[in-house]
TrEMBL record:
Acyl-CoA dehydrogenase/oxidase N-terminal domain boundaries: 8-132
Domain Acyl-CoA oxidase/dehydrogenase middle: 136-229
GO cellular component, one term: plasma membrane
GO molecular function: flavin adenine dinucleotide binding; oxidoreductase activity, acting on the CH-CH group of donors
Keyword Mitochondrion appears in the UniProt entry: no
SUPFAM superfamilies found in the cross-reference section: Acyl-CoA dehydrogenase C-terminal domain-like, Acyl-CoA dehydrogenase NM domain-like
Entry keyword set: FAD, Flavoprotein, Oxidoreductase
Listed cofactors: FAD
Family to which this protein belongs: Belongs to the acyl-CoA dehydrogenase family.
Span list, region Disordered: 386-409
Name of the protein in question: Unannotated protein
Acyl-CoA dehydrogenase/oxidase C-terminal domain: residues covered: 242-388
């Protein structure tokens, strides 16, 4: 990639800076409230976080800065990946974010644009982009995480509705979502990848129970979701019956590259600031570790730009870099948050009583979710080996068996 702005891109960057300087405040420290309060157990904190996210996204939408790479017919500006990257670079300097809404736009938007019916696109894309409606992803199950196609949630056609029963888990922000994208099994008599169908779910429907999962940090970002005779109109089918895996792959291709863009709150500057406050910057061993944090951050930034460009331009041969990016991100995150905790010495064993209300302790616990979300490291290594390097596929005795004849946990 060429990291130098062309004259056109430099002009666009000035436009972005003018908009942001007029509508947001520069970041003054870490963004601990943005990174923590969205899943806070305190209802007032969580509600304030969501209110700010919705307000910022509405401002972007009303001002023409939302959906920069979305086609104009779907409410976007039809710009290129370079403009999106420039906007992200400049936004990172400001204390403003769309937070949990961003993930839905990155996952649901491309999926509906590629596979949704014209009626679905007209109904859902604009409220998604404006932040008026929020979404969640109903994919993983207790027995189907890395092997997602083994899922057991079933949907049976009954007249003009599909009746759904089953359970999903590790669903981010389900307790606040208006809609969800669901993949369910509609044909158990064919191999597991072939009998799946993709749906839009109104999360306010009867037959849905959402149970927040309290994590080690005391927050509830993830949820269990139970379906008991949930009725989904046939008009909410996305793509064709039995074609759900194809539709889901569009969603999954965006997920790993999206996850790897997280972690603004734990960047090099934040680690360095902690080291300076504790008077540790003269330690030569620590300086070497800080240099590693800085180097990883630069490499991660460049990898992220390349992967975002590949995904936005449909270059599937480069989109596999999302697997490289995701794995490198999780390792880099673990290194920098663990280093920040170690810097604190015995105080690092505290939590909310530690410096900064336990900010680094929170991030240290939170790193484990990033290793699993969007696919484990082992899954991404397999993707790279099989699809990028042409290595033999992992042995699987159930690949060609009907789902109802395969062994499941």
């Amino acid at each position: 990639m060429d990291f130098q702005d062309s004259p056109e891109l430099a002009s666009f960057r000035e436009e972005v800076r003018a908009f942001l300087s007029a509508n947001a405040e520069l970041r003054s420290g870490d963004d601990r409230d943005w990174s923590r309060n969205g899943a806070a157990s305190d209802p007032a904190l969580a509600e304030d976080y969501r209110r700010r996210c919705h307000a910022w996204q509405k401002l972007l939408f009303d001002s023409g800065w939302a959906g920069l790479t979305w086609p104009t017919q779907f409410g976007g500006r039809g710009l290129g990946a370079a403009q999106q990257i420039v906007f992200g670079q400049e936004l990172a300097k400001y204390d403003a974010t769309s937070g949990f809404l961003t993930a839905a736009q990155a996952l649901v938007g491309p999926t509906l644009m590629q596979h949704g019916s014209p009626e679905q696109q007209q109904r859902y894309l604009a409220p998604l982009l404006s932040g008026e409606e929020s979404w969640c992803q109903l994919f993983s199950e207790p027995g189907a995480g890395s092997d997602l196609a083994a899922l057991a949630t079933k949907a049976v056609l009954d007249g003009d509705h599909w009746v759904v029963n089953g359970q999903k888990v590790w669903t981010s922000s389900a307790q606040h979502a208006d809609f969800g994208i669901l993949i369910a099994r509609t044909d158990p008599d064919v191999p597991k990848h072939e009998g799946l169908t993709f749906f839009i779910v109104d999360m306010r429907s009867a037959g849905i129970e959402v149970r927040p999962l309290i994590q080690a940090q005391g927050v509830a970002h993830f949820n269990e979701v139970f379906f008991s005779d949930l009725h989904i109109p046939v008009t909410n089918l996305v793509g064709e019956v039995g074609d759900g895996w194809k539709v889901a792959r569009t969603t999954l291709r965006s997920e790993s590259s999206m996850i790897s863009g997280a972690g603004q709150a734990t960047n090099y500057a934040a680690v360095l600031s902690t080291a300076r406050r504790l008077g540790r910057t003269d330690d030569p061993v620590l300086r070497q570790e800080l240099a590693k944090v800085w180097t990883n951050e630069q490499v991660l930034k460049w990898m992220s730009w390349r992967t975002q460009t590949a995904v936005m331009t449909g270059r599937r041969e480069l989109a596999l870099h999302g697997s490289l990016l995701k794995n490198f991100f999780t390792r880099s995150l673990a290194h920098r948050v663990n280093l920040a905790v170690e810097l604190q010495g015995p105080e690092g064993m505290l939590f909310q009583d530690a410096e900064g209300e336990g900010f680094w302790q929170y991030q240290c616990l939170n790193q484990f979710a990033s290793r699993i979300g969007g696919g484990t490291e082992e899954v991404h290594r397999n993707n790279l080996g099989e699809q990028a390097l042409g290595l033999p596929r992992e042995p699987a005795v159930d690949r060609d068996l009907p789902w109802n004849q395969s062994k499941r946990s």
